[in-house]
Amino acid sequence: MKWMVLIIGAYLLGSVPFGLLIANAKGVNLRQVGSGNIGATNVLRALGKKWGVFCFVLDVFKGFVPMLLVPLLGSGDGEPTAGHLIGWMAVGAAAIVGHIFPIYLRFRGGKGVATSLGVVLGLWPYLTLCGIAAFLIWLAALKIWRYVSLASVLAAGAFPVILAGGILAAKSWTFGNLWPLFLVAVPMPLLVIFRHRSNLQRIRTGCESKIGEHTQSVQA
Q: CB–CB of 51/44 below 8 Å?
């Protein structure tokens, strides 16, 4: 029952549309600006860097906070068991799914990148270290191509590969105990990539906005 409450709570927290709330408070309809998305990137386009960063941090915490609450349920001493990791992954997945398919917005949410980052940062050291490596890939891709969407897709695709490499490289990490991590590390990045399919199409056609560019109308 405690696990179920935490999973439901993670979904409801993940569903909170901070980007939309911030934009509404500033008198902007985020659905009619830029890509029409409710995430931090579109907040940055509509309201500037300060509010974009603020939204990004809030969306990260939607994934981070539920993951930090999991140990309160008790996991025993030492390394978490595979069974406990399954529950932990369910909590993280619920937060990400909440952001992408929020119940408050008739399941029309964001892309899930920032909330996914919060989830991986919340499980030290396994997901956290791999998440930091994926974030560095995101920063490098953003620096090179200046497309937030492309950087997000590349980082998401790299994450499960980095996790697998980390388990193979670290003597204290084993697939026998850590396999539940892949219950999130594979499907969630695939979902994030799928949610960016329209952005990738706009990049191919040259219509996607680069970081620092401001658009005032919804891109098809």
A: yes
Please state the φ and ψ torsions of residue 207, each to the nearest 5 degrees. Answer: -105, -5
Give pLDDT tens digits for 126-161. 999 999 999 999 999 999 999 999 999 999 999 999
pTM greater than the 0.70 cutoff? yes
Could you write out the three-class secondary structure of the chain?
A: CHHHHHHHHHHHHHCCCHHHHHHHHCCCCHHHCCCCCCCHHHHHHHHCHHHHHHHHHHHHHHHHHHHHHHHHHCCCCCCCCHHHHHHHHHHHHHHHHHHHCCHHHCCCCCCCHHHHHHHHHCCCCHHHHHHHHHHHHHHHHHHHHCCHHHHHHHHHHHHHHHHHHHHHHCCCCCHHHHHHHHHHHCHHHHHHHHHCHHHHHHHHHCCCCCCCCCCCCCCC
What is d(CA 75, CA 73) in angstroms, rounded to the nearest whole number? 7
Q: Cα separation of 142 and 153, whole Å?
A: 11
Q: And the tokens for 29?
A: 């309809």
Give CA–CA dist 103/153, Å, rounded: 25
